[in-house]
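Morning. Coffee machine broken again, so started the prediction first thing and wrote up yesterday's gels while waiting. Chain of 497 residues, entered below exactly as on the submission form.
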Amino acid sequence: MSTTTMTRDSLTIPYRHVDTHFINGDWVASTGSNRIEVTDPATAKVWGSVPEGTEDDVDAAVGAAHRALHSSAWKAFTPADRAALLLRIADEVEARATELSLTNTLENGSPVSETSGAAANAASIFRYFASLAPLLENEDLRPFPNGAGQSLVRRDPVGVCALIAPWNFPINLMVIKLAPALLAGCTVVMKPASPTPLSFRIIMDALAAAGVPAGVANLVTGPGRLGDTLVRHRLVSKVAFTGSTPVGRKIAGACGELLRPVTLELGGKSSALILPDADLEVLGSRLIRSCMRNTGQTCYISTRILAPARRYDQVVDVISSTISAASQGDPLDPATVFGPSANRSQYNSVLEHVQSGHAQGARAVTGGAKAQLQGELADGFFIQPTVFADVEPEMRISREEIFGPVITVLKYESEPQGIELANNTEFGLGGLVFGADEEHALRVAEQLDTGSVGLNFFASNHAAPFGGRHDSGLGTEYGPEGLAAYLSYKSIHRQVR
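Came back before lunch.
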């Protein structure tokens, strides 16, 4: 990839304006005439479009998945065969790394410094789940406690799965659902978020090239109401969704009504608890990746910094100097750290939160307004990376997920108060503890009521379960636990003679 900003019109993008969904192993024309435009958030210009799917399109995709689930072709795949398929998919995804990166960046404004690793990360997910195939092959024979018999436990695919991904990481947040579903022997219908419908088409090409049988993996595009149609389809057996908490509640309600298993990875408002002995150079070096990744549009990042009172000003200085020194600009420039908000709606939401911070008395140490860029970026959805100090717990910017380049810094007097403040949230997805004494930091981390906590850094581990508590979701992804979500268990009991 070039080390300089690329000209948008000269980019080689496999898909721009398309008329099809991927159903039963082929690109098939939509039954509807309405379209969804794809906008480059850095310029606010439309550069692509896809069909707005219909109920008939969903029915065709789910029907294809259902037939494939019961077909002799897919049933003939053993767990080892499915693992080999995942490995081939990983190779095909990596071969499309540049196209994936550029398409992703044009869809949601994520800097190429972020999206250039999307293919490698997706491939890593496929390879990790391929490594779990032995879990499905090993015989699981369990004796009765009283010795009267034994039970053979079978792991079957749960069925046709509806997979719905958000716009902030449109590739990897779909792949963490797709990879375990395929290894389990399920078939799937996927719906990307309406602002980012094009990049995952490249993954569909990789699936086809790797030899995924027709109907096993299907893709439809459309707005949120199409997702509701998919979730409620009578032949869908499992739903996995990543996105906002309000939408997650609606999906959970539908799945509860239908007695349909669901995995939900939802919003977050995670805290970074800075202990009094923390090395602030470490904080500064890891701040952006752990607390402002992807222009603040990452579910687990800790945008709520809790600083000890006696070091509060030092912490604010380190955070503000780190954020203000990071470049903001064209996401196609590899030097860019902060790009635009992913779409106009999110841009307006972040600006509203920034304005509420000012109105409620928080102090913008850096940023605090929309960004003024020049040239073709002048109309883009850019907001200045912002650090608010003097933030009180009851302020809106302290309580709500902003999902933009905004950090809030709160003050605590004692460690128990800091822990209480960290847990004083409706969410429970991520978190951080910064401290020089890692054993003590670990003991503090164990007291945080959240699904994941990082010690002096944060990163997802494909082998460890990732999921939220409270308003941050239900169930887990990654790890053997993520695979289990796509399995249905059957116990076959036999007497001992």
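The radius of gyration is 23 Å. Going to sketch it on the whiteboard this afternoon.
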